[in-house]
Structure formats: C-alpha cells, structure tokens
Known about the structure:
Number of helices: 3
Radius of gyration: 41 Å
Strand content: 15-25%
Amino acid sequence: MAVAIRLSRGGAKKRPYYRIVVADSRASRDGKYLEQIGTYNPMLPKDSGERVKLNEDRARHWLSVGATPSDRVHRFLDAAGILERAPKNNPKKGEPGEAAKERAEEKAAKEAEAAEAAKAAEEEANAPAEEAATEDAAAEDGAAADAAETADEAEEKAE
C-alpha cells in the first residue's frame, strides 16, 4: 500500500484549516486516513508558532516506513528539520510574457523618440537665439544708421 503524508482540508468556506495526515495515496483528499500527525492553519500569520503543529516523532516514523510527503508537507518537514528539501528553481516564472515584452519595446521606442524630439527642440531653441541676437544687432545698427540719416536730413532742411 502506497502511503502519503498530505493535507486534509477542513474548516468553513473561505476559512481553511488543514490536518496533516498519513493516508493511503488512493484515498480521497478528505477521506479516510491512517493517522493525524499535525495541523496547519493558513489563516494565522506566518511567524506564528500555532500556524503549523507537527508531531515530529510520528512524522519520522512514517517517513522511515516509506511514506512520501506532498510538496506542502515536505516544506513543513524541511522547516522542522526532519527532511531536507532541495529548493526548486524556475527562472522563467518571473519573466514577462510576449505581450508585456512588446509593450515594453513600444514604450522604449516612444521614450527614445521623445528624447530625440526634446534634443532637437533644445538645439533649435539654442541656434535661433544666437541667430536672432546677430539679427537684432544688425537691426540695431541699421536703425542707428537710419536715425543718423534722418538727423542729417533734418539739419539740412533746417538750414
């Protein structure tokens, strides 16, 4: 008979409470079990000592007999120091999907275009200012020359 150490769900709707049980692997999740070796209350804070209660002696016994723990129970046993669990690594889990990558590329392209436009506007703002200054100086020189000519003409008429 294949024996498993797993969780059996109890509690009300949206208020789970689990028993850590040793059961035949073919039995239903909440069905018959051979022995209850602990409890797990996910509603309690993670740092609470009451969150996971485990009878370590019985867990060691069932593991020595050949019981296989479920993934969640394996985590509990590892935290209790009963059974070593190798950490799983899924590097693709945190990677964004194709649509998110496309959106990121579009956003980067828009930012690059905006940066180029801002740079061009800045250059354009700097360049005309210098040209305008030279034009203003030339206009001022021309206005002074015109004023001098009109002053000369006024003197001639006065004479």
